[in-house]
Amino acid sequence: MDTVGDLARTLVLRTHQTRLNQEMDRLGVEIASGFVRDPASHLGGDITGLLAIDRTLAQLETYRVNTTEASFLTGTMQNALEEIQIRAENVSQVLLSVELTPNDEMLNTMSSEAESALNQMLNGLNRSVGGRFLFSGTATDGHAVIDSDTMLNELRTALAGQTDVVGVEAALDAWFDTAGGGFETTGYLGSTTSLAPMRLSKTESANVDIRADDQVFRDTMKALAKAALATDSSLALPENVKIELIGNAALDLQTAQAHMVELRSGLGALQQRIEETSTRNSAERAATTIARVELVGTDQFETATRYENTRAQLESLYAITVRSSRMSLVGFL
Q1: Pairwise CA distance, residues 157 & 186, whole Å
Q2: Which of 73, 144, 311, 312 is 20 to 30 Å from 288 at the Cα level?
């Protein structure tokens, strides 16, 4: 009977030891996470509210990623457009002085300045972030436009044989503005389909649809190309034609910049809306997180106290178990 009693006592001690170990594991997890380990038990089996909160937090996380991406894309676009606008404005001011110093050296310098600005502009429109090209529409894996050397070579072919301002400008208009013209067939490399709107919240979305084939870019490119090719030796244009083309290019650039300001203003408004939406989402996420804590969160101080009490009980149980295992008949004599 003593053997049976010893076995029963051992079984009871092991049962308590297992229970206390499990309790310590549960309390340790709750201290580390700040939430109860078994929400269903904590909520009495009704987890409908918890599921709704978790769905909302998952949606808000998706919106957070989207607003971050949209903010980054629009910010990079704005920087590219600013660089294009500033350079075009500076070039237009230089070209306006063409009639003041109409000598070959100065004309060639102005054409070189326009060509350099065209190269910078095309590089800006071909800008990419993380392998994603910004101004190519849905064709984000490729360049938006051809490089400046290729474009000018294409235009030299299109302008061949023209000897006056009317002819040169008509050929440029045909290449840049005509449906199915040179710019659409060979100059623009991106897609004519804009990116789908990015969902920022339940009620807000961002339509980042600026493409390099926008008319404001065509007008700017055309003006810069006009000035760049005015002194091109292969065209052999008369000096009065060169001067008029460069002067007209300066005026065209100024007109195009007015539209560029409008484009950048619209993009700026979108950036502000993205920022405001992100702020609202952050506030909602904070409030929802607090609601989840109130629903299944733990009192860290109380949990830590219970953990220490359980640990003390387990240590006492170990001590009792050790003493019990050392008991023998000799110990009672």
Answers
A1: 13
A2: 73
Reference 200, options 211, 190, 208; nearest CA is 208
Global pTM value: 0.77
Question: How many angstroms separate the CA atoms of 179 and 109, rounded?
Answer: 33
Q: What are 257's two structure tokens?
A: 């910049």
CB atoms within 10 A of CB 312: 11
Alpha helices in the chain (DSSP H): 2-33, 39-42, 48-95, 104-125, 148-159, 165-177, 182, 215-229, 239-296, 300-325
Q: List pLDDT tens digits, range 288-325.
A: 988 877 776 655 656 667 756 767 666 666 666 666 66
pLDDT tens, 252-263?
999 999 999 999
CA distance 314 to 298: 22
Please, where are the H alpha helices in 201-238? 215-229
The pLDDT of 156-168, averaged and rounded, is 93
CB neighbour list of residue 66: distance below 8 Å, 6 or more residues apart: 198, 199, 200, 206
Going by C-alpha positions, the residue among 89, 90, 74 that lies closest to residue 256 is 89
- pLDDT at position 166: 96
Which pair of tokens denotes residue 247?
A: 């002067």
Phi, psi of 194 (to 5 degrees): -80, 160
Query: Is there a contact between 88 and 320 (Cβ–Cβ < 8 Å)?
Result: no
Contact 24, 307 (CB under 8 A): yes
pLDDT of residue 218: 97
Pairing of strands 198-199, 132-133: unpaired
